[in-house]
């Protein structure tokens, strides 16, 4: 059967492969190459070695955005996952209106980042107006604003995944633990948490990469104001490319560093949580 | 736990969640009533309901549509989303079947590359991808479909491959022995079985394409073609001045179709997200 299908490569695999080459493989290879070049367009690239990578570390906006992004990622991953898990626990107790609550909490997830940013700009500026300040008054307002926004958007999504995980725990397992005299805290620590570990793996992976790569929400909410202080990595890279002349090579080098960081985080995180998964 | 206490507890939880749900949808309600207020009243007192002095009827909607031609943006967004999702489902499911059934070095290399592409942040390829798309004249609503197929292929192929592995070979072999060509086998036997995964992929890709801002912003000729997120961001204009009235009105117009769609297909969306997350 292998052979019969094999001849159909042009029909089955080629269209995707061609698009994948245009949309990913070529840009990726060219991108890695350009990070070692000075250029303004693709055609005038001059090889300069690792000069761009050295220039990155002299750019204080990049270093600042790196820390800002790291801190934001930690805070938002914790906040989103704890809230989502807590809500999921409460919504699997079979209370009235569970379906409606689930529907409402999931809804913001369908709204795009740009629109979310402007919705929350209105709300948060309205609240801060009481103190005669705005979101762009200081970068910590932008920081907590983004955390609130991301929670609003993602708690519902993660909650859905946690609910699926909690509902998958076999009932007799909980029964057995109760008969053995486990109290609620012990039940949570020794039965529920280990059993939903696959959900924790997925949710922490999704929130981690989403937060670290955040762009649209950041652009719409504060656009990096005041003076690039609330700028996250993705926006910093964008501004390096399109906002500063002669920095294209550095922008591409930053993008490579960014990609390596994302890949490292993803691998380390998956390893760390996968190890804790158990079988029923 | 006695029955009475359980019920009491449940009632309290329902009440608490009802309050939280109302707070959860508040941001959208606030945007909704602000869209009927005069510009200066929006930024000054965003939480006040429209009254005789601040109410302007649908003026914001008219001025917003004049500024950014939202119905046209809606058309572009709809076309690009539907076309991209259709092409992604068709091409990547065929490709996934091929690379799972035909085992050789090329197909396993392709599988590795698709999996690898999933963790690449868009900033890594944004500059080179936009240049390549420019050279190949893909900066229009039809061309961008190829870019979406290329950049979105990773996740889709990965999810389809996971499913194809679970389809028993015997059915396909039987079809082939009965004289089906691989193309007939695929469309008559394999694709119908893959429908649940196809729905999952379609929902995830549609949510991504519909809300995507940066890729179309860099790839499309945005003087001619604006999708909804680009049109909304365009309202911000130069130097950070925003027409808040038009912004509120356009946000409402942009999210109404999403909410209607969500309420209509809620079940599929939530199931699709769970299935997608668990496999991804």
Q: Which architecture name of the largest domain in chain A does CATH use?
A: Orthogonal Bundle
The largest interface is: A-B, 91 and 98 residues
**SS-based class of chain A:** mainly alpha
So what's the overall shape of chain A?
A: globular
Helix content of chain A: over 70%
Arithmetic mean pLDDT of chain A? 89
User: What is the average per-residue confidence, as pLDDT of chain B, rounded to a whole number?
Assistant: 88
Count of individual beta strands of chain A: 2
State the gist of this model.
By secondary structure, chain A is an all-alpha fold.
Commentary on this structure:
The complex is a heterodimer of chains A (280) and B (280). With 280 residues, chain A is mostly helical. Chain A has 2 domains: 50 residues, no CATH class; 216 residues, MetI-like (MetI-like fold). In chain A, 72% of the residues lie in helices and 1% in strands. Chain A has 14 helices and 2 strands; from the N terminus they run H-H-H-E-E-H-H-H-H-H-H-H-H-H-H-H. In chain A, helix 7 packs across helix 8. Chain A is globular. The model of chain A has no long low-confidence stretch (mean pLDDT 89). Chain B is an all-alpha fold. At the A-B interface, helix 1, helix 2, helix 3, helix 6 and helix 7 of A face helix 1, helix 2, helix 4, helix 5 and helix 6 of B.
What structural keywords apply?
heterodimer, A: 280 residues, mainly alpha, two-stranded antiparallel sheet, 14 helices, B: mainly alpha, MetI-like fold
List the helices and strands and how they pair.
The complex is a heterodimer of chains A (280) and B (280).
Chain A: H1 2-6, H2 9-12, H3 14-34, E1 37-38, E2 46-47, H4 51-56, H5 60-90, H6 98-106, H7 113-128, H8 139-167, H9 171-179, H10 184-195, H11 197-212, H12 216-221, H13 233-243, H14 248-274
Antiparallel strand pairs in A: 1-2
Chain B: H1 3-34, H2 39-44, H3 59-68, H4 70-101, H5 105-117, H6 122-135, H7 143-164, H8 169-177, H9 182-193, H10 195-211, H11 214-219, H12 228-234, H13 244-279
Helix pairs in contact in B: 1-13, 3-13, 4-5, 4-7, 4-10, 4-12, 5-7, 7-10, 8-9, 10-13
